[in-house]
Amino acid sequence: MDCNLSNEPMDVDMSFNSTNAMEISYNEDKSLIKQENHQPTVHSPKAPKYKKLIVDLHSRQIKSKRYNNLLYALGMMVLSISILVYHFKVNVSCNDNIDTEMLRISLLQRIHGQETAISKIIKTLDSKERIKVLIMFGSTGVGKTLAGTILLRDQQASNIYHYTMPTFADAITSDILLGLTWCKSSYLVVDDLKNNDILKIKTILTILINKSDYLDRNLTIILIYNCIPDDIKFPFQCLSSFESQLRQNLSDINVSKHYVEFNQLDHNILKKCIEYEMGQEIDPNIFEKISKNFDVKQDGCKGVHQKIKYLNNRMRV
């Protein structure tokens, strides 16, 4: 096979014009030539879509946690209220209407020589006044505290509260406030008061009265005052001005007030107290001997139970 390949050398133009043209071509002003920017293009990576999804999910989790915490708090509140309501249903017995006839009989059986005072007490409790204050006052041992004790014992109700001074000055507890809310009627007995103690308890009484009035509840406050004479030789002296002082001290409590005085006792009443304690009538001569152990003007019938028990034990020995 013939191949038309020539072994002759290629013709190369080495003339001046040829080389000059090449020089012109390669020596051209570079400022006229558009320079390309050969810096590598940096592409900012786009934030991945899953990052936004994570942020949204985290935000939803926070909102869900707050919502669950709110539901938990509300649930605990409802549970606490339910327990409180159950506690009151089980433990609180509201006696909105005192059996004053039964109370009158009990008072007459146990308290001697105070028929007028007992009649006033029953009349006050029977009155239709929604909020009232019953003030009982008298000297030691005449039956004031016993009257309050009989009221508590006979009625067997949780809405009758009994306090003594000075503890009542700090006794505005949740029990009283909740009792006023729960029961239609409430009774508050404060014993062992002295004339000037009203300054210590007036704020508490005002709070209870205002709360009862706001809630349209019935409230009977029974204040039991001890009239302690300055001179034992004149036991009636304290009673002469005591009631007027009480009225003045209680004047700014703007509710109905009823004052009941318990009379000073004498030997005839002391005899009845001793006979009740012994469960039998006693001969006047025997009473004369027994009565030497008592000071009826100073103590009334107070301490009869303890002294009769002591004398009986001595007689047995």
Structural commentary:
This protein is an alpha/beta fold and 317 residues long. It folds into 3 domains: 55-91; 100-261, P-loop containing nucleotide triphosphate hydrolases (Rossmann fold); 267-316, no CATH class. Helix content is 52%, strand content 12%. The model is unreliable at 19-26 (pLDDT under 50).
List the helices and strands and how they pair.
Blueprint: H1 16-26, H2 49-91, H3 100-110, H4 115-126, E1 131-138, H5 144-155, E2 160-164, H6 174-182, E3 185-193, H7 198-214, E4 218-226, H8 237-249, E5 256-261, H9 267-278, H10 284-290, H11 296-299, H12 304-316
Parallel strand pairs: 1-4, 1-5, 2-3, 3-4
Helix pairs in contact: 3-4, 3-5
- The CATH class assignment of the largest domain is Alpha Beta
Coarse structural class: alpha/beta
- The CATH superfamily of the largest domain is identified as P-loop containing nucleotide triphosphate hydrolases
Tell me the fraction of residues in β-strands, as a range.
5-15%
In a few lines, what is going on in this structure?
The protein has 317 residues and is of the alpha/beta class. It has 12 helices and 5 strands.
Give structural attributes.
317 residues; alpha/beta; Rossmann fold; 3 domains; five-stranded parallel sheet; 12 helices; 5 strands; 52% helix; P-loop_NTPase; transmembrane helix
